[in-house]
Hints:
The chain is mainly α. Helices cover 75% and strands 0% of the residues. It starts with 5 loop residues before the first helix and ends with a helix.
Amino acid sequence: MIGIGTRQATREVSTLAQPSKIPLGIVTVMAVWFISSYAYRYLTLDTEQFGIFRPRAGWLVLHVAGGTAALLIGPIQFWFGSQRSKAVVHRILGIGYLMCVAISSAAAFYMAAHTDFGWVFGMGLTSLAIAWVATTGLAVLAISRCLIEQHREWMVRSYVVTFGFVIFRAVVEVFEIVGTGTTVERLTAASWMCWAVPLLITEMMLQGRKIFMYGVQVPERLAARESGLLELMKSTENTVVSRPQAPSKVRLEQPQSVVESNL
Ligand code: HEM
């Protein structure tokens, strides 16, 4: 009755498949566009090039260096992340990403507090920095407790936030082309839109995927699922899980396909 092996169960429980090439390609192209158009010029020690950022040149160099590396590491991690053979590389790049976010976000807090474009703009980017630290921190916390699925989801959110500054510049460019508002209004609107909207869309995709995976839950089916899961947990207790997981988490993440095949 219950014949699912460790690997198969683990694979099916995942709500995030290998990312498809097209979205990852678009993200990478946009990241490279942003780095070459906006960031690259600040990767220098010649502070003459820094314009309004000259008084904060040191902070900006740290911020841009960390941000550029985090932007480039992200797609590599998503592409190779699920391959066991690349586990060591994944770990090294993951630690690198974490350090880049730590350095770049610390500088971002400083620059947001000293911006020339007003407190609402500053608050928008401070909130972006808080989201950066929070999403990345939760991804690290999840993997330190061996919660692979939660780690993946929080890393997706973390990279969406990293990518927020690319979206920020794209939104400002669109506002400029359309001719909407003043410079400060464009920057301020973009400082909030660039991360709040993408995070909302990400959440709708992550949670929507789970909702559709479970299908319609009638009471009889729920009861059958509960008992099936109990049996699955008992049978895999000694072979599957190296560290015990809370039953509530396992119950939440079992897709219908796993449960039905075990009833
Ligand atoms: C995701 C969290 C991020 C936050 C909270 C953040 C915050 C900030 C702040 C506050 C400024 C100064 C804005 C001003 O006063 O005009 C700034 C500028 C800048 N940031 Fe970030 N940033 C983030 C991510 C990134 C990333 C990933 C890069 C990639 C290289 C980056 C590159 C830059 C560049 C090039 C500038 C200066 C030129 C410009 O405004 O386009 N930032 N950032």
